[in-house]
């Protein structure tokens, strides 16, 4: 329930300008989630949402990699990842719906030398690895 609510919060912030916790509570309610102000406040803190200035005021934003601590990225990776596998030199990471971009950010922040690049969809992250043997070894490193 918490992970799904937080996924919806990220989706709402990504797709809509939300300026207050009250607006976020209404948007969550419209998405089928009833949450108290305390719960929303805790979710904002756990997701490390920031506020950015716009002409209309300060709105919530998803932090960039520079804004996210290593511990937060590790937690997001652990909580968002469902499975890891490889085919040849390609790594396939399945995530909770809506979490692939944040999991990819967590992977990129680790600066694995064997990863040539990552691409994130909604619930899948694809990583191109230098070799098949390195891909197999990285699967074992990333398994949770």
Characterization of the model:
The chain has helices at residues 2-15, 21-30, 37-46, 70-80, 100-109, 132-142; strands at 50-54, 57-61, 81-87, 90-95, 115-120, 124-129. By secondary structure, it is an alpha+beta fold. The strands form two sheets. Strands 3-4-6-5 form a four-stranded antiparallel sheet. Strands 1-2 form a two-stranded antiparallel ribbon. Strand 1 and strand 2 (57-61) form a beta hairpin. The longest helix has 14 residues, at 2-15. The mean pLDDT is 88.
Features:
24% strand; 6 strands; four-stranded antiparallel beta sheet; alpha+beta; 144 residues; elongated; two-stranded antiparallel ribbon
Number of strands: 6
Mean pLDDT: 88
How many helix segments?
A: 6
**What's the story with the biggest beta sheet?**
4 strands, antiparallel
Radius of gyration over all CA atoms, rounded: 17 Å
Question: Low-confidence runs (pLDDT<50, min 5 residues)?
Answer: none
Q: Please estimate the helix content.
A: 40-55%
Query: In order across it, which strands form the biggest sheet?
Result: 3-4-6-5
